[in-house]
UniProtKB/TrEMBL annotation:
Keywords: Aminotransferase, Pyridoxal phosphate, Transferase. InterPro entries: Aminotransferase_I/II_large, AspAT/PAT-like, NHTrfase_class1_PyrdxlP-BS, PyrdxlP-dep_Trfase, PyrdxlP-dep_Trfase_major, PyrdxlP-dep_Trfase_small. The lineage of its organism: Bacteria, Bacillati, Bacillota, Bacilli, Lactobacillales. It comes from Companilactobacillus crustorum. Its cofactor is pyridoxal 5'-phosphate. This is Aminotransferase.
Amino acid sequence: MPELDSSVKTELDPSVVDVVNKTIAPMGRSMIREFAEKFAKIPGLIKLTLGEPNFNVPEHVKDAAIESIKENKSHYSDQKGFLSLREAVSGYLNKQFNLKYDPESEVIITIGATEAIFDSLGAIINPGDKVIIPTPTFALYIPIVKILGGIPVQVNTTADGFRLTGKHLEQVIEKEGPDKVKAMVLNFPGNPTGFVYSKDQLQEIVDVVKDKSMFVISDEIYAELTYGHKHVSLAELMPGKTIIINGLSKSHAMTGYRIGYIAGPKDFVEQANKMHAFTVTAPSNPAQFAAEEALTNGIEDPVYMRDIYQDRRDFLVDQLNDMGYVTKMPEGAFYTFSKIPEKYHLSSIEFANKLANEGLVGVTPGVAFGDGGEGHFRISYAASMEDIQEAMKRLRKFTNNL
C-alpha cells in the first residue's frame, strides 16, 4: 500500500464556498471537546475534562459482543433495535425505576444518548418553536435545537442551587408564550452540576407542565450514579408527556459502544423512529448484544463504580472548598462544578486556559454549559484517584500563585 502524503489537501472549489447550511456555519464546535483536545496537547497535563469513565467494560458484557460476532449475527436488526434488547430495556426501566413501556412500540435503540436527543427533539420541533433549557447543562441541547430550527430558551438556575423551580418555570413559559413553548429538556442527575431532583421537586415541574401543550425530554443518562438515594424518574410522575433518554455509556463504562435509547408513548415513538431510521437505519449488532447482557445480567455492575466515584467526589469537594472554590456536594453523576472566586477577575475560559498552561490541569470552563455556567469550572472525577490527587496538588500550587 503506497504511503499517504499528508501535505496533499483537497481545496474547496470557489463556486461552492458559500453553499453551506446557514444555521450550522456560524456554530463553533462543542466547547467540551474543543478544550479537551487542546489541553491534551500540553505535555504533562492531567486531563479532568471529559465524562469518560476510567473503568473497563465488564467482562461478561464484552463476551456477549464477541459471541455475537462469532455466531455471525451480522445482518440488519430491526430499525428500532433487536426486540430482545428492547425487552431488556423495558424490563430494566420497570425494575429500577417503576416505569412501564411496551418494548415493541415504545422503545428505540439509538447510537448513544446523543442520537436519542436529536431524534426526540426532531420529532417535536417546527421552525420557530421554543425549547426551554435550564442551564448550566449538557452542551449539545442548545445547538441541536438551533439546527432543527427551534429557539433555545436558556434559563439560568444558579440562584436556586442549579434547580429549576416550578415557580421559575411558570414565569418562563408565560414570558415566552405558552403557545410557543413546545418542549423542555431536563437533565438529571445533572451534567455539569451533579444536581438530582427529588420526587417533590419533580412534582413542582409536573404541576406546571401537566396543563401545557409541551413535552419534557428527560435525559437520565446518569440515573445509576446517585449517592445516598435512589433516582426517581420524571416519567413515573408524568408518563404521557415525558420522553426518557438513557443509555449504557455512563452506567457500564460503554462510551465507545454508542448505545442509548428512547422510551416514551407509542404515538411519539412512531415519530421519533422516523428521525432515527432516516439518520442511522439501525444500531451496531455487537454493541446491541453487549447492551442486552448489561441490562439483564449486569444491573449490579454500576454499584462497584459508584462506590469508587463517591470516594473521589468526597475528596475533591473537600479539597476544592478548602482552596476557596465554593463547590456544592454533587448528588449524582461524576462531576464537580466549582465557583471561580471573583477576586481573580477571570472568566471561566480564561481560568481554564491559565490553569492548563500554568498549572498543568485540564478542566472545562463553565460557559461551555450555557449562560448559567459562566464563573464556574467543571472537573470530571471519572479519572483515577491518583490523577485526581496529583491534580489537586497542582491546583493548590496554582491557586497560591494567583
